[in-house]
Design brief:
The structure is a single chain. The protein is of the alpha+beta class. Helices cover about 50% and strands about 5% of the residues. It has one domain. A four-stranded mixed β-sheet has the order 1-2-4-3, with helices on both faces. Helix 1 packs parallel to helix 7 and helix 2 crosses helix 4. InterPro entries: Mito/Outer_Membr_Metalloprot, Peptidase_M48.
Length: about 280
């Protein structure tokens, strides 16, 4: 496997583009398509009812509002913060493989930020806007491999456009649209997507969405030279942290743990082991 490099690109000037923001332009550095080692099927056709650009713009606005709030509370990790640098290093290894799962990712301006909070949580919004809370790194004592599994999982939600499909389904159902009306109502759904940015962080994905994110994230991390076995140890830590009460952790309120999840990951680790081994050999 060839080794790919990503160079940070400067963001356009704006009130919220602080130097601490980690911005990457996904583009020519990404290699051509390659066969995926994990099988997740086709993405939901329902997502086409919500324009991707509208949702990504809405996500960007919400993300930057969140950063402004964190900055005002002195909770946004500054440039050079060791944990932030660690997240940047992991992102640099995963992002070059993102376009294998979504061509739009070639044009995303990826950002990775760290927020000081005891909350055990992390996310990636549409368009590649990633945030980790210090609580998930500190309280679970995550290794780099385990952190890469979380980042890959969250990136996968964005790459597979789970939020876009979820919002489209919700809006179409709520409006009681027929198939024909849906096709004629793109403008309404696009407007709804633009106004749903404030709900992106509270979306709960389906079990199938979670499975997809697990498997795509597993492959992303393996291609980035992170040990796929860490996916199993990660979710065991998640289970232990809850004490049997999954709702007690913010992350697990939308990403439930359990033996079935661990079992499925264990079954898929051998499928990506070769990718991991090749990435390690490539240095």
């Amino acid at each position: 496997m060839c080794r790919l490099c990503f160079a940070p690109q400067p963001a356009a000037a704006s009130p919220w583009n602080a130097r601490r923001a980690f911005v990457l332009a996904a583009g020519a550095a990404v290699a051509g398509p390659a066969l995926a080692q994990v099988d997740v099927g086709n993405a939901s056709g329902m997502r086409r009812l919500v324009p991707a650009e509208s949702l990504e713009n809405s996500a960007q606005q919400q993300y930057h509002q969140m950063l402004q709030q964190a900055r005002a509370k002195r909770a946004l990790a500054p440039e050079g913060h060791p944990q932030l640098e660690r997240l940047h290093a992991i992102a640099r290894k995963l992002i070059p493989f993102a376009a294998r799962w979504n061509e739009r990712a070639r044009g995303w301006r990826w950002e990775v930020n760290l927020i000081a909070s005891r909350q055990i949580n992390a996310f990636c919004m549409p368009g590649g806007k990633i945030a980790f809370y210090t609580g998930i790194l500190d309280q679970l004592k995550l290794s780099d491999d385990e952190t890469a599994m979380i980042m890959g999982h969250e990136m996968a939600h964005a790459l597979r456009e789970h939020a876009r499909a979820r919002i489209a389904k919700t809006q179409a159902t709520g409006l009681g649209l027929s198939i024909g009306a849906q096709l004629l109502g793109l403008g309404d759904l696009g407007h709804a997507a633009a106004n749903l940015g404030t709900q992106l962080l509270s979306l709960k994905f389906s079990r199938s969405d979670e499975t997809e994110a697990d498997l795509v994230g597993l492959e992303l991390a393996a291609r980035g030279a992170y040990d796929p076995q860490a996916s199993v140890s990660l979710w065991r830590k998640m289970g232990e942290a809850t004490g049997g009460k999954e709702g007690s952790l913010a992350f697990l309120s939308t990403h439930p743990s359990g033996p079935d999840r661990i079992r499925e990951l264990q079954e898929n680790v051998p499928k990506v082991q070769g990718l991991y081994d090749a990435a390690r050999r490539a240095g």
